[in-house]
Each structure stands twice: as structure tokens, then as C-alpha cells.
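Quick one, C-alpha cells below. Sequence please?
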């Protein structure tokens, strides 16, 4: 895109861009995204010393996309009707290699995995155990946080990841009312949300949740269900 703009060349030859021309909007067709994320070089880390001095974790992206279809979500909207493989993950060995590189260069121990959804098929209980084993085998004494969907968690997944340094999670709960969740096209139900919070507490994972308390169809019953759930989980950060 930059090369074309600098050369004042046609933007219509670039896939996946929208632009104005003669007062009209043009959108070019999008290509399928990169499937093998391992082919992408590790990002430049020029500003890491500044990030570390500020006390911030280093960001790592281990996957892209999400298989959910939630009505409010920009990830789902971006993928809708265009991308066939909506979630793509890097191999464990590739992630370990990047973590090891960052530790050797900067002594980094705290990381934030900025994936939209850290646990998606084929990541399952077996994958979580393999990832934890790889972190330990590599001698990586790390702490990391992730963003996860409530309905993807099991006791085995949480236990494995916690043993490898998973200390904090952002969980896309959104609501504790089944009727509201259905309206949002969430695949999870209130029982899934409650179970996820209990599992994270059991394994001492600091838990923050996303919550969408209101929409234009919210009922008093739904508000009551959310209120009861929230006072029943006082350790959760909203």
C-alpha cells in the first residue's frame, strides 16, 4: 500500500483495501489471510527497553482470529463472509522460540498474549499440557496473561496453563443471562460463564471479565440475573 501511494500508482490492484475515487467508494476483493503464522518474522522490538522500564508486559501474538460469531464483536465482523479459516494459531515451538529470544535479549519474564481468543480448536486439553510442558522444558520462568472464551475452559486446561505461569485472564463473559447471551449470539451460556470463573479461582488465576449489562432489549429479569451472579463472584474484576 505504501509503495503504491508513494508511486501514485493504482490502489485497485491491492487486495483488501477501500478508498475514495472521484467521490465514490471502491473496495477491492480480500485475499485469504496467512494460514501458517510461523512464516511471519518476529516483530521488531526497538522500544522494548522503554516498555520494560514502564513496568509493562511484552506483547506476543500466538494466534489470530476467533471462531465465535458474537453480534457485538469487531473480530467476527471483520471475518464475516470473507475468511474461511477464522482462527489460525502458531506452533508451540515457534512461540517458545520467540519467548526465549525475548528473554535472552531483554531478560523479560512477564508477557501478555494478545490473541483475540487464546483457546480455539485444535487447542484443547492435550495442547495446553504440551504447551505447559514445552515452557517448563525450555526453562522459561515466565508469567503470562491471556484473553479467553469462557466456554473453552476445562479444569485440565486451566491447571496446565497455570502450572506454566498463567497468572491472569480476561474472560469474555459478557452476560449472566441466557436470554441476553442468545441475543448476542454467544455460544456460551450462563452456566459456562460461572464454571469458567470457578475454575480460574480454583487455580489462582486473576480474573477480569468483559460485561455488556445493557442493550435495547434488556429486561429487569436479566438485570436481576446479572446482579445475583456478580454478588456471588466478588473476586472478579469488571
Amino acid at each position: 500500500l505504501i509503495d503504491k501511494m508513494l508511486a501514485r500508482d493504482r490502489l485497485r490492484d491491492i487486495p483488501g483495501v477501500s478508498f475514495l475515487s472521484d467521490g465514490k467508494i471502491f473496495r477491492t476483493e480480500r485475499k485469504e489471510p496467512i494460514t501458517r503464522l510461523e512464516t511471519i518474522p518476529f516483530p521488531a522490538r526497538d522500544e522494548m527497553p522503554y516498555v520494560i522500564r514502564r513496568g509493562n508486559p511484552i506483547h506476543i501474538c500466538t494466534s489470530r482470529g476467533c471462531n465465535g460469531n458474537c453480534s457485538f464483536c469487531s473480530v467476527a465482523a471483520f471475518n464475516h463472509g470473507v475468511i474461511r479459516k477464522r482462527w489460525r494459531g502458531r506452533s508451540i515451538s515457534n512461540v517458545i522460540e520467540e519467548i526465549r529470544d525475548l528473554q535472552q535479549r531483554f531478560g523479560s519474564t512477564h508477557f501478555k498474549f494478545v490473541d483475540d481468543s487464546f483457546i480455539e480448536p485444535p487447542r484443547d486439553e492435550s495442547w495446553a499440557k504440551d504447551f505447559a510442558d514445552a515452557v517448563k522444558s525450555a526453562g522459561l520462568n515466565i508469567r503470562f496473561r491471556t484473553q479467553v472464551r469462557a466456554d473453552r475452559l476445562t479444569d485440565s486446561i486451566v491447571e496446565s496453563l497455570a502450572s506454566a505461569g498463567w497468572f491472569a485472564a480476561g474472560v469474555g463473559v459478557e452476560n449472566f443471562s441466557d436470554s441476553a447471551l442468545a441475543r448476542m449470539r454467544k455460544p456460551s451460556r450462563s452456566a459456562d460463564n460461572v464454571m469458567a470463573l470457578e475454575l480460574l479461582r480454583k487455580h489462582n488465576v486473576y480474573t477480569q471479565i468483559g460485561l455488556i449489562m445493557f442493550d435495547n432489549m434488556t429486561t429487569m429479569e436479566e438485570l436481576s440475573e446479572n446482579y445475583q451472579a456478580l454478588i456471588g463472584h466478588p473476586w472478579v474484576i469488571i
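The first helix runs from residue 2 to 6. The chain has a mean pLDDT of 93.
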